[in-house]
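Changelog-linked ticket: zinc ion example.
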Amino acid sequence: MTPLFKSAHAAVKFAVNCGNESHIGRSTVSKLADPPKGADTGLVGLDGVGQAAMVLSMIRSSMDRRQEACLVARCSVHKLSCSCGAACCSRSRPNWTWFEAINFLSMEAKLAIEEDRKPGTRGIQDNPAIRQALIAKYFGERVRISELAKACDITDSTVTNHNSKITKMLKKSEGEAWSLIEERLRDAFLIF
Ligand SMILES: [Zn+2]
């Protein structure tokens, strides 16, 4: 049987963006699915929504919420197109699915930074705006360390310090998440 998806990344990308279908258009969703050449057009008896639901349930049942949020943050689009027609409209709006994953990871980063603090020391000062921006950066938003430091009125080295702790946490969780979902998708013959 030919697998439905070329890679775990293609499967997760398809699944987490499937609900956006009406906004980004069916053809975009088909492209996101990115089936290998010669693949069937889908699983027997399952439409695209069903396939997406299946991949999502595999994600939810095989990992913790931090790992799940890493996959959503990595694979969901950051913005959706907007056709409200208002003169002030930038023709795009935030994708709350992506935004919520970033928010959740920002709370997780706070916990990780606290755990990392050596007893008897102050550790690094918590700053929600920096946490959020650095997580968005890790997942592909264009954020410059120096610009962030300037905007938050702190030193570059404080931002760099936050960045190394946050990146360490995200790399670990994201790596685990990809291993877990790859195993599930392979077991279900959705990827090779
Ligand atoms: Zn609009």
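Closing comment: Example verified and attached. The chain has one domain: 8-187. DSSP finds nine helices and two strands in the chain.
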